TrEMBL record:
Residues 107-117 have a biased composition (Basic and acidic residues). It comes from Methyloceanibacter superfactus. InterPro entries: RmlC_Cupin_sf. This is Cupin. It comes from the Bacteria. Residues 92-130 are annotated as: Disordered.
């Protein structure tokens, strides 16, 4: 096992002061080598938060499009199978597949002249996209900017 802590890249969807959404590539970097408990060997863990959260799994059908909308709550989204995309108001489109996490924090975006708000998302390819979603407390996590998680 290497002594150097790993990093885990993710996309962070966020809203700027003008209400425009963006996507920024970030990394989780605060990994500590520690056992999860019992007789389990040490592993690299980045303990982001202790909070009440909702966890759900979604299956987006082939051809599914979620037109312009905000994430309903600040949420981590991890594709389990298939591929999907997220497009923000600044024109950035990112496609993600299994194991490529993103954080949806585009609450409080404002409609632009074309009526776009938040982001649009949808499936990519000829198979459904299965996602694991961990929704966080909006009072604590709405408005978190890139770099807000280590």
């Amino acid at each position: 096992m290497t002594d150097a802590p790993p990093k885990l890249d993710y996309w962070h969807v966020w809203t700027d002061d003008d209400g425009v959404t963006h996507q920024t590539r970030c990394a989780l970097t605060d990994f500590k080598l520690k056992s999860m408990g019992g007789k389990a060997a040490p592993q690299w863990n980045d303990h982001l938060l202790t909070s009440e959260a909702s966890i759900l799994f979604c299956v987006l059908p082939v051809g599914w499009i979620g037109d312009w909308h905000e994430n309903p709550k600040p949420q981590w989204i991890v594709p389990v199978s298939g591929r999907w995309f997220v497009e923000t108001m600044d024109g950035t489109r990112v496609e993600m597949g299994p194991g490529e996490p993103s954080f949806g924090g585009d609450q409080e975006s404002k409609p632009d002249p074309e009526g776009r708000v938040g982001h649009r998302s949808g499936t990519v390819g000829d198979e459904p996209a299965s996602l694991m979603v961990v929704q966080l407390d909006p009072k604590t996590w709405s408005g978190v900017r890139p770099g807000g998680f280590k």
